[in-house]
Each structure stands twice: as structure tokens, then as C-alpha cells.
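User: Sequence in, structure out. Go.
Assistant: Echoing your sequence, followed by the C-alpha cells.
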Amino acid sequence: MRLVAALALVLAAGISRADRVLLIPLDSRPAAGQFAQMIGRIAGLDVRMPPYETLGRFTSPGDPIKILEWLNQQDLSDVRAIVASTDMIAYGGLIASRTNDTAEDDAIIRLRKLLEIKRRSAKTKLYLFSSTMRLAPTSTRETESWRMTLAKYEEAKDKATRFNDLEARATVNRLLPKVPAKALQEYERARRRDHDVQESLIRMTARAGDVEYLVIGQDDARAFGPHVVETTRLRRMADLFRVNDRVYFCEGVDQDANVLMSRALVRETGWVPKVRVVYSDDAAKTKIAAFEAITIEKSLREQLLASGALPAEPEGEYDYTLYLNVPNPSPERFEEFMTNLKSEVDQGFPVAVADINLGDASADPQLVAGLMENARGMKLLSFAGWNTAGNSIGTTIPAANVYLLARRLQVDPLVREVAQREFLLHRFVNDFDYHRFTRPRAYALLKSMGASKEEAYGHAFDAVNTLVEADLGNYLSSTFKDQLLGKHFFAGSTEYQFTDISDIKIFLPWPRAYEVRMDFKLVTQPVTVADK
């Protein structure tokens, strides 16, 4: 194995602590913005977002006009990159992009304004990401009774249309009367508008030269559905305009800010991380993970390339190993996988772990148990195991890339090491403890109160928010004590230890218990002779 020896080149193009990145996230959920901020902090970067209240909350859209005003007021002289969700700028966020409340012309005008603001600074690069609309409408109390019927209808219609599948056609005829006609009409109008706007984004990328890179992410999907034809058309258009080196397609969208944060940093230095991949079961490479439309192997490759990395050649040199826990590995293969993973971590090799063997969006208990032994999880480059395969992979890879890059740059080593541990602790507590234990308890409380788990307000929301704060707070404190408290680490030539966790804030950002916002700081102090 080789760690890339391009230190002189990288240092010459090093990241200044004064540099900023401006992030316009997909919405106000932690996964959409907080994760990318934490990854940027590993490299010592100040990643700033618009005021929280402008980002919207669940079905209340963000405010694109105020966000553009905020962006226009920024001094771009020390801004190395703008990473922006086109769905936030065009419609007010991901949820708003699934509705037909914004006219196409208004969406295009807002996006053009974004380009105008960027043109004020030639050194500031613009990275955009856009979501291809998912099959199902947003899960709310209003859509609860028919949303999945609509999704199955659209899936069957695509199969019947493209393959003349008689069984699928029968499904279409059976399901159509069960979907409210107005809801279906609004859904399909929103799809057409979103697709037209994505075509305009490709034209903007080709014509103006203002866009450094555009990622088109596929929101939750399946192998069949209107998104398949839409993506095929967009890929052909990127080929036609000869921008397929700057327009990229990935499964998932919530992680795209992470992916572009990585790309904005690593590609500017000229370093291209090479990643060796180890699967928990090679037989799963050609399978399609839940909520995705392409194979696991192809999805992984897309995330790697979009992040600025490359898959290592077989038996070739690499910078780190990505251990990928696939859905339902065979017991024999998983045991071998865990043995090799533990061995590499224990020997101090650079290892990242992505878990896509997700049960109800929770990380795999067997994998987590193995990583919690001897505090192995805190020795990883990065870890993620949340929601979908694309989300997990597209969080693990960027964090690993940026951490290794930060080690090669003139970044404050204490800032780097603490920020990396904070993100690791955040991921294990959020991706495992919250989804495995706290969220089910929150859902049970809502059920006992006669409230919907899709949306909760008033007393029901206050009660579940209080439960989440206390329950997850206990898991955070316990995991910190087990994995980090008193542990020593080096930052440069100085030895430090973790002594406390402070500034803890835990709350539900949206009126539901599906995701949680968790903030904290790790406290350290230098190790003295008396500590040894």
C-alpha cells in the first residue's frame, strides 16, 4: 500500500484557515447541511450557511429570495467555493421541489441570479447539486393513505410503457382509480417542471462556464419509474453538450453537499485519493440497494468519482480502504469481512467504513458491536450508516478524503483531530443509537398519544422532543465515556486526551421523529506526566 507522496504539491496549494465555503443546503435537516459543515471543519474551513430561518421546515419551504439576498451581501474575496442546492434556490428545498407551487420561469430566474452573484469573484468556484424527483410524494398526514399507491402506479406505468409488460399494465389499470386525480396531476406537473429545470442547468453549465461541477442526484427510487427515462435523457444531453466531465449523476441527494465539499477541496490541490474497496459479500455488488435504481457497485463508483476520488486498480496502490457492509451478506463472508476489518484497524491502517446493511435506516448492530470493541470506531478515518446506500457511501467517502487531505495540508492538527472525532462520534450515536433505539421509542410515544408519526404538533411534538433530548443525550454521554473519555491522541508532536463533552443540544428539527439535530463539542487538554 502507498500513501500518496505529493506533499510538496499539496502544501503549495494549501488551504488557508481564512478561507470560507458558502453552503446553500437542500433544506434545514442536519444531513443536508450540518454534516457538510462538520466535514469542512476537519480541514479547518469555515463553512457558512444562510440564516437557519430562511431554510424552511418540512412542508414550509425555504425562502430563495432571502437566501439570494444573503448570498449577494457576502464578501466573496475569501470564499473559495459556493456549494449550492439548486432545489433550494429554485423552489425552497427538497420537499418544495416535489410540489407544483413554483413556476418554471421563476425557478430559472432565481438560478440565473445565483450565477450573476458568483461572477463577482473569479476565484470562487460554484458547485451545484440538483435532485431528480423521487417516486413517492412527501410523507405527510394528507398523503399517508395514497402516496405509496401513487408510487406503485408510476412504477408500473413505466414498466408497461417501456417494455409493454401486460402484468404491469393491469397494475396501472387497477391502481389508477385509487389515486386522487388532482394529486396525480400536480405530481406529474412538478416532475415535468423539475426535469425542464435540470435541462436548463445542463445548458447553464455548458454555456456560461460559471459552474465548476453539477451533480444530479437521484432521490429515493426503484429500478422502474419516470426517473429512469428522465435520467437517460439528461445523460444524453450532457453528452450532447460535451459536459459529461462536469455533470455527474449519483444515487441519493441528501449527501450531495458532503460529496461536493470533498470535491471542492481535493481537486483544487491536485490530489486524487485512490480507494481500495472491500465488500462484506462480493455477491452483492450486482444487486440494487433499497431506494436506488442501479447496482451497488455502480452506485459506489459514482460517489467516488463525484467526490474527487478514484477506485484503486486491483492489486494497485491506494490511499485508504473502504470497507462496505452490503445488505444481507452471507454469515461466512461477513465473519471474514469483520476479521479483516478489525485487523487492519488494530494495525493502524487507514480504513473507512460505510454500512448499507440498513434495517429501518439503522446501522448494522453486528458491525457496530465489532467497531465499538477497543474503541475501534474512533480509529477509523470515517463511518456512516444512515437512510440509504447512497447517503451512507456519500458521507463516508468525503469525510475520509477530507481528513487525509487535511493531514497533508497546513491545517491546525488539534482542530483536525478533534473535528474528525466529533464527526465519528456524531455518526455512531446518530446512525446507530438514534435510529436503533431512540426513534422507535419516539414513534411508540406518538402512537400512545394518538398522534401520527408522519407529522406531530403541539403537545405531542413537545412530548416526543423531550423524550428524544433525554434518551439520545444518555446514549451520547455513554458512548463518549466508552469510546473517547481519557483516550490519548497526538496532534502534531503534542499528546492530548479527551476530558469532557460540552455544549450539548439535541432536538427534532422537523415536526417528526425521523431525524434529529445533535450538536456538541469535545473537550481536550494536553497530557501531563501525571496523566501517564
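User: And one key feature?
Assistant: The longest helix spans residues 413-448.
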